[in-house]
Amino acid sequence: MKYAILGFIWLCAISAGFSAVTALPAFAVDNMQSTDAPDLTSVRAKIDAKDYAGALSELRGLAEDNQQADVYNLMGYTLRKTGDYRTSLTYYTKALELRPDHKAAREYLGELYVETGETAKAEEQVASLKQLCPDGCEELEDLQKAIAAKAGN
């Protein structure tokens, strides 16, 4: 019995450690490869049309029912576009807690940092994207362009 209890405690400790490592917080549109996301076609159309209020309304309903990185990423993106940087940061963080390899969330978080003058933090997202796509990717290129454009101003 003593060993069973110790085994259970050990298992809990390992699980807690694994959760802490895999859910590191970090500070979209989204990864199209995701298969567990709800249908976001309508939201994307509203975002493309710059109907951020309509997109937010729809996303709030989806966020209540879906703990899903693409939903949180789009919520962060839409909030950033409306100027609500603080809440946007919260949603990007949630997206990256669920999927640390979410390239779009990393790009958009970096763009948030560019917009708020935190270039060093934006560069951290560049470093993360370089690890995620060593051969390059659109998200990395877009974030690097945003940083360069800000530096040129």
UniProtKB/TrEMBL annotation:
Q: Which residues form a coiled coil?
A: none
Give the organism's phylogenetic lineage: Bacteria, Pseudomonadati, Pseudomonadota, Alphaproteobacteria, Hyphomicrobiales
**Alphabetic keyword roster:** Signal, TPR repeat
Protein name per UniProt? Tetratricopeptide repeat protein
UniProt repeat feature TPR, residue ranges? 69-102
**Which branch of life, at top level?**
Bacteria
Q: Which Pfam families match?
A: TPR_16
Q: Where is the chain membrane-spanning? A: none
Q: Which residues form the signal peptide?
A: 1-28
InterPro entries in the cross-refs = TPR-like_helical_dom_sf, TPR_rpt
Q: Which PROSITE patterns match?
A: TPR, TPR_REGION
